[in-house]
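Recall that a protein's primary structure is simply its ordered list of amino acids. Everything else, from secondary elements to tertiary packing, is in principle encoded there. The following example makes that idea concrete.
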Amino acid sequence: TQGVEVASPMSVYPDYKSNRGLFMPDSGKMPTFFVEITTDKGIKGFGQGGIGGGPVVEQHLAKLLIGKDPFDIERLWDTMWRSTMYYDRAGIGTHAISGVDLALWDIIGKALKTPVYRLIGGKTKDRIPAYCTGNDIDQHLDFGFKRLKLAMAHGPADGRDGMRKNADLVKTTRAKLGPEGDIMLDCWMAWTEDYTLDMADMLGPYNVYWLEEVLQPHDYAGFGRLKAAIKHIRIATGEHEYTRYGFRQLLEHNSASIWQPDMHWCGGLTELRRIAALAAAYDITVLPHVGGTRDGVHFTMATTNAPWSEMFMPAPGGPKAVYDLWSELNSVSRGPEGIYTQPPEDPGLGWDFVE
């Protein structure tokens, strides 16, 4: 989505309302990062971690890994977790652990000459149905998506007029998509309980599949109250939650029908699998944030309670070669549910970097 205002927790301040870039770190500062780990046998593993975690890897976690066996991944994860919890249990430290953990899984897959999804359960589906996030609705429909997630531009600071604009976007999308496709709404921590209840009533005619992150992440009880009150739309959250201990809070407050952990933030693939197992015991669906990445689809393919992947298309208006390459890298295919993806069959996670 290009040039579209998206509601956020900072929308209450007019100076920061129009663009997330006004309050997020400047480009190149505190970036997401890739970890490269090389074994004594020359195998290189690559893993992506979340914002700002790179220095934690370089200045702390590296010394815990040197000389260790990458196959001892449970012990290595636990060592990293226990050694960082005194300064970070939910944030940059966990972002760092995530990147390292994914690099270790990449090494294991390459050492065994096997794609990671086959190491963690194999195929639970022939291919993965995908939904597309963003407000470039015509582009996504023309490409073939039948599940769309829209960014909500307005929150409580915009009053009733903002609510009507949110509803109008959904109404327009439903008219273009038709009655059978799914519409999801990303509210990015910008709404309140009362606002969400009013919006849910207003959205009733449009068969919305879920409302995502309507409240700030720590408001477990608030999410629980909304889930109990709103019966016609599912409540989803968890993008900004960390480790199984955070998701246990969601569980104990009955906060959501759909959990959305981010593999690059929540603790990596090792922890994501624990989160999914916890969810499965309570029939909770797990749909990872940005789950359609080259590494994320391994988890979805191998996990029974993870039915879809989230994808983001290149911006509209670009050369055809860009979309062709995107389709190739994501193993895009088409079928009854619209667009599908699947993990690469290369050993490991499928990363291939040119030095």
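The two ends are 31 Å apart (CA to CA). The longest helix spans residues 92-111.
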